[in-house]
Amino acid sequence: MNNFLYDYSIEQVTRKSVTLLIFLLHAAKLLLIIIPLLLTVAFLTLAERKVLAAMQLRRGPNMVGYLGLLQPIADGAKLVLKELILPTSSNKLILLGLPIIVFFLSLFAWTFIPLGPDRILVDSELGMLYVLAISSLSVYGIIMAGWSSNSRYAFLGALRSAAQMISYEVSIGLTLISILISVGSANLTEIVLFQQYIFFIVPFLPLALVFFISVLAETNRPPFDLPEAEGELVAGYNVELSSVGFAMFFIGEYANIILMSMVFVIFLMGGWLTPFNTYSNNYMVALIVKVNLIIYGFLWVRASFPRFRYDQLMYLGWKVLLPISLALTMLTSLVLLVTNGLPT
């Protein structure tokens, strides 16, 4: 009997040790994704200011560090060290908690993003649905932040953002449905491997344009930055936030830009695949080059196009992009049906 109890206790300890080891392993993998992502977000702000300066024939940040490379660190330190000021009539618990939630939501989606062959934290058949769901949840953080600050400007900016994100998510979903019915799987790794011979951006070029425009509106980027229109709303939903709260929203916005650029590359540009050597050892180089190309598109659009009016924004989403994406989805289904190309 004593031997049985001893063996049973040893088995329990072994199970707990294995569970703890697995948890620590997954945590380490998650940190390997989060830490480079945060560094990328920091230097993306510098890259944006440098690109805008070059397009406007000026220098941009060049005083802090060599060629201004330490400017993001200085900006981050300034935000963290600023005094946290909250309106007296605001809901302080929600106003302080939501930026943290929005920040972590922008990180959770990366658990399903494949960064290379066998370089994915969670490889699931529902990867596409998970990424879309996580990207859609950020609208709750924005609208609750606008409501909890008890400011008319912030609440109006939050309502604009909610209407805008919901409107353009429909076009994004229809665009990805065309790829889903072509591949027959929502697994992101399988979608990448399906593009071994031709990237989807070639046959689906009109869908790629619709997807890119919709992503600009989804991430509240110019020329669709109506929730943050400084001319009429001062700063939009985050006008009452300062210090760390503002920094969390700021980081979340730029993390979403990188995430959506990665989603664009995975669905339409073959992910880590290269045009000539599918299983090249330089797959990370190919992936980084493609993602930077899409991010540059975000910056180029900001420097080139003026802000839309809100009625123009809604018209473009519901009466232009939605019918086009729906028609292209139906056309894709018809072509696959006629050519017997529907996946089994």
Contiguous uncertain segments of 5+ residues: none
Computed over alpha carbons, the radius of gyration is 23 Å
Overall pLDDT level: 82
* Total number of helices: 11
What's the SSE pattern?
Answer: HHHHHHHHHHH
Strand-residue proportion:
under 5%
Structural class: mainly alpha
Folded structure, characterized:
The longest helix is centred in the N-terminal third of the chain and has 54 residues. This protein folds into two domains: 81 residues; 250 residues, no CATH class. The chain is built from eleven helices and no strands. The radius of gyration is 23 Å and the shape is globular. The model has no long low-confidence stretch (mean pLDDT 82). The protein starts with a helix and ends in a 6-residue tail after the last helix. With 344 residues, it is mainly α.
Task: Offer a quick outline of the entry.
The chain is mostly helical and 344 residues long. The chain has helices spanning 2-55, 71-81, 92-108, 127-148, 152-183, 188-193, 205-218, 230-233, 243-268, 283-304, 310-338.
Main attributes?
0% strand; single chain; 344 residues; 2 domains; mainly alpha; 11 helices
Task: Note the topology.
Elements: H1 2-55, H2 71-81, H3 92-108, H4 127-148, H5 152-183, H6 188-193, H7 205-218, H8 230-233, H9 243-268, H10 283-304, H11 310-338
